[in-house]
């Protein structure tokens, strides 16, 4: 199960943002650890973990909505742990600007590697709808993120 | 996993590292602590460097359940624990601090007996009885397979004693290396003949 840690972290960062991702990751794996003995032997562990992460993300978004102030900047990390420079802030900002459904399908398909049928089983709707939402999401990201990085790099 | 990614998406996400080891390690430690607090960390494990190579140590809540030599395959040992004990296994060094310290002392010749809670559930029946006897063989002393067989009440079960030693889930701490052939040669060992020789040499000094 630990093999999936980095994948779930990328998904959490994409869906709830870098600030909340670590809590979402911890809650996902703690819930998974509790439920693991009940998981079918042949089950797709990746899809199962992403399903749990999806529920945790919904919880996190609801909790954030109840909070009076939106946090604009990333919370400081103690001891310089993590390597934020590897985690392009602009990309997360661009992902955060997507509608939630698009952000979720982009993350589950492109960052978790799940096929659209599995993505649709998690987010609801059909595989085709998930594919279209992901395509729309990628189109928007191309416009917002890639355009910005090209300017920034002068390329 | 992302082999099917279109070029455009690859340009978008290609800069993200597949692994973020520091963060992942920190999160794993935090998860292990939380799981332990909630009582769902069934097996904690860590690795430790010793003169005999990197050993895998694993403990349940009851005690030390497994020590695996590199030649036995750490992944295979973890897979066996997942199957026979519980799939709730995490790298969580804290639970193994005592084991690690006592092993360090043993290899530094500052310890002659281990004082650790053991969980011998991976050995059953006759083999379990053999392991119980092995714990009574003192540091620096050897017995033959035949002597161990006699001591466990089955003098004809010499070969089964060999199997019990070969499948000892916690070598070193349960000292199967102290069992040798009647002709004085060392016999086999879970960690390989060199490891057995090294342990007997260490204890003979």
Radius of gyration of chain B: 21 Å
Residue windows where pLDDT falls under 50 for at least 5 positions of chain A: 70-86
User: Main β-sheet of chain B: number of strands, strand sense, barrel status?
Assistant: 4 strands, mixed
Mean pLDDT of chain B: 91
What is the annotated CATH architecture of the largest domain in chain B?
A: 2-Layer Sandwich
The shape of chain B is elongated
Overall body shape of chain A: globular
Q: Which structural category do the helix and sheet elements of chain A fall into?
A: mainly alpha
Q: Beta-sheet strand percentage of chain A?
A: under 5%
Q: Assign the structural class of chain B, choosing from mainly alpha, mainly beta, alpha/beta, alpha+beta, or little secondary structure.
A: alpha/beta
Encode the helix/strand succession of chain B as letters.
Answer: HHEEEHEHHEHHEH
Instruction: Pick out the low-confidence regions of chain B.
Output: none
Distance between the termini of chain B: 54 Å
The largest sheet of chain A is:
none
By DSSP (H or I, 4+ residues per run), the number of helices of chain A equals: 7
- Total helical elements of chain B: 8
CATH class of the largest domain in chain B: Alpha Beta
Overview in brief:
The complex is a heterodimer of chains A (155) and B (205). By secondary structure, chain A is an all-alpha fold. Chain A has 7 helices and no strands.
Describe the model.
The complex is a heterodimer of chains A (155) and B (205). Chain A is an all-alpha fold and 155 residues long. Chain A contains 7 helices and no strands. Chain A starts with a helix and ends with a helix. Chain B is α/β, with parallel strands linked by helices and 205 residues long. Chain B folds into 2 domains: 26-107, Double Stranded RNA Binding Domain (2-Layer Sandwich); 125-204, Winged helix-like DNA-binding domain superfamily/Winged helix DNA-binding domain (Arc Repressor Mutant, subunit A, Orthogonal Bundle). Chain B has helices spanning 7-13, 21-37, 74-84, 97-107, 125-134, 145-151, 158-166, 193-204, and strands at 43-50, 53-59, 64-68, 89-91, 143-144, 179-180. In chain B, strands 3-2-1-4 form a 4-stranded mixed sheet, with helices on both faces. In chain B, a hairpin with a 4-residue loop joins strand 2 and strand 3 (64-68). In chain B, helix 5 (125-134) packs across helix 7 (158-166) and helix 6 packs across helix 7 (158-166). The longest helix of chain B is centred in the N-terminal third of the chain and has 17 residues, at 21-37. Chain B starts with 6 loop residues before the first helix and ends with a helix.
């Amino acid at each position: 199960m630990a093999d999936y840690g980095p994948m779930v972290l990328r998904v959490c960062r994409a869906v709830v943002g870098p600030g909340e991702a670590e809590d979402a990751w911890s809650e996902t794996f703690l819930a998974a650890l509790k439920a693991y003995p009940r998981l079918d032997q042949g089950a797709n562990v990746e899809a199962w973990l992403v399903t749990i992460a999806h529920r945790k993300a919904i919880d996190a978004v609801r909790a954030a909505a109840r909070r009076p102030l939106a946090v604009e900047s990333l919370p400081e990390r103690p001891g310089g742990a993590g390597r934020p420079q590897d985690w392009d802030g602009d990309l997360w900002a661009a992902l955060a600007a997507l509608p939630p459904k698009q952000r979720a399908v982009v993350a589950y398909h492109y960052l978790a590697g799940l096929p659209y049928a599995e993505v649709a089983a998690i987010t609801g709707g059909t595989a085709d709808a998930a594919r279209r939402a992901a395509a729309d999401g990628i189109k928007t990201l191309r416009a917002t993120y890639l355009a910005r990085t090209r300017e920034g790099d002068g390329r | 996993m992302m082999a099917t990614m279109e070029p455009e998406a690859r340009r978008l996400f290609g800069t993200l590292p597949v692994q973020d080891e520091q963060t992942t390690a920190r999160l794993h430690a935090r998860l292990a602590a939380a799981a332990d607090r909630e009582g769902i960390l069934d097996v904690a494990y860590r690795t430790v460097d010793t003169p005999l190579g990197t050993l895998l140590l694993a403990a349940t809540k009851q005690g030390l359940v497994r020590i695996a030599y590199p030649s036995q395959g750490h992944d295979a040992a973890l897979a066996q624990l997942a199957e026979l004990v519980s799939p709730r296994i995490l790298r969580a060094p804290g639970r193994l601090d005592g084991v690690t310290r006592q092993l360090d002392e043993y290899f530094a010749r500052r310890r002659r007996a281990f004082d650790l809670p053991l969980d011998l559930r991976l050995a059953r029946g006759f083999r379990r009885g053999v392991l119980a006897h092995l714990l009574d063989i003192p540091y620096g002393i050897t017995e033959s397979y035949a002597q161990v067989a006699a001591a466990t009440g089955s003098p004809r079960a010499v070969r089964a004693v060999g199997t019990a030693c070969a499948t000892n889930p916690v070598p070193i701490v349960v000292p199967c290396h102290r069992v040798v052939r009647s002709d004085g040669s060392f016999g086999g060992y879970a960690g390989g003949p060199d490891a057995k020789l090294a342990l007997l040499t260490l204890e003979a000094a």
